[in-house]
Amino acid sequence: MGKKILILVGDYVEDYEVMVPFQALLMAGYTVHAVCPDKKAGEVVRTSIHDFEGDQTYSEKRGHNFMLNATFDEVDERGYDALVIPGGRAPEYIRLNKKVLEIVKYFAQENKPIAAICHGPQVLVAAGVVKGRECAAYPAVAPDIEAVGGKYISLDMDKAHVDGNLVTAPAWSAHPEWLAKFLKVLGAEIKI
C-alpha cells in the first residue's frame, strides 16, 4: 500500500500552493486527500492567486475553485504518512479550528513529514510545534515564528529549508525545491 498524504486547506488558499503539490504528489504515486474544516468531499474551496509584481507585498487576485476529495470530519490523522499545509489566506483562520491543531500536533509528535509553505507555518505556530525548530515562511510570518521560540530562516523565494521532518519554504516559486525536499523526507529518491 502506498503512502497517504493529507493536505489542510480553506477558502482562499493560495492557488498554486494547493494545486501544484496536490497534482505533483498524485503524479508521484501517493494517495492525497485535501480537506477543509466544515466541508465535505465534492465541495470546493475558492483559491487566491498571490503574485510578486514589484509592490511592497504580494498582490492578490481571485483564483480557481479547488475540489476537495475527502471530508474533514472523517479524517483520522493516524491513517496518513505526511501532512501538507499550503499558504494563502486560509492558514490565518483554519488555525482557529481545534481539530486542525490536533492534526498538526499529531504529525509533529509522531515525527511524520510536514511540508508548509508561505503562510502555512501560521498553522504550525498556532499548534505550538515550531519552538526550537528552524522554519522558513513568507517574511511577514517571521515575527510569529520567532515569538513562539522558533528560528525563522530567511531564504530566497525559490528556496526551501529542511529541519528534520519539517520542510518549509517562503512562496510558490520554491515549489521545485520544496517538493523535491519533501519527497526526499518521505523516502522517495529525488535528485536536487
From TrEMBL:
Give a single Pfam family match.
Answer: DJ-1_PfpI
DJ-1/PfpI domain location is: 3-184
Stored InterPro entries: C56_PfpI-like (IPR006286), Class_I_gatase-like (IPR029062), DJ-1/PfpI (IPR002818)
**Record family assignment:** Belongs to the peptidase C56 family.
What is the name of this protein? DJ-1/PfpI family protein
